[in-house]
Amino acid sequence: MTSASPFNDFRNLLANLPPADQAAEARVRALFAKADKPKASLGRVEDIAAWLAAWSGQAPPAVRRPQVAIFAGNHGVTRHAISPRPVAATAKAVELCAAGGAAINQVCIANDLGLKVFDLALDVATGDITEEAALDERGCAATMAFGMEAVAGGADLLCLGDLGVGNSTVAAALCAALFGGAGIDWVGPGSGADAAMMARKAEAVDRALAFHGAGLGDPLEALRRVGGREFAAIAGAILAARMQKIPVLLDGFAATATAAVLHAANPAAIAHCLVASLSPEPGHARAIERLGLRPLLDLGVGHGEAVGAGFAAGLVKAAALTSSGMAAAVRT
Q1: Among all residues, which ones are annotated catalytic?
Q2: Cβ atoms within 10 Å of 9's Cβ, excluding its own
Q3: Is 0.90 topped by the overall pTM?
């Protein structure tokens, strides 16, 4: 008699996701319609406020406890020289965040955002996806469960980002597994790869696709086989946020590739998520298009560590205040 799959709890969550609060969304749109302004004159700001209401259940919406969560992981596939940065750079970036000297620290100060950085066993790289699974099923499920802790403490807006040398190659492999295509269709320069390195990245993706084959047909299997710890943790955080009515901003290629995993399992699974910022990585734009999403910002930011989401959080906070302030004026 075999034991239950460690993924079963997540499959059950994906099959029983809470819906949007359509009444709250309608109230926000009605208040904008009643305001003393031209129809739809605030453009996408009105849509952002309505999205916040739909997924938080508050109308007008409010953002009082925004939280940035960054997940850091290392990857065995880096042994194929697919990144110009050494693996040790991941831990150094985490240390810089802890010391308050990273870009995201300054963005959090500017927009009054909380910040948590999660070190996901940086001293133990995942399996080399070209010849083995990144994680076993139990380890992947446990990391997803750990990622769910990102919502602890009562956040009302969750900004998700990543740190991980080599994870643009892993994101490309996930997207190729989910959407089809070859490595060359999904890889990009990442943190500064030249043409020869990009060719190695594409080859690594192709080798991973060939090695794992039909095993990539199930989205959660794809996550564990060609993903990584930060990807698994982000998946858990997205699901936990949905269950607790917390809207989510996704930063960068890795977080978007993770969202694609959940979307493949249930297309409704990422309705509470917005892509914060378009990165220069070409695969990111392709993934966003395949998911039918539209980034809030396009600043050419490819820095990682949730910087794009931090900037976008300022916009989301402003949209919430715009909605609540105009609603108050309508009621007086």
Answers
A1: 305
A2: 14
A3: yes
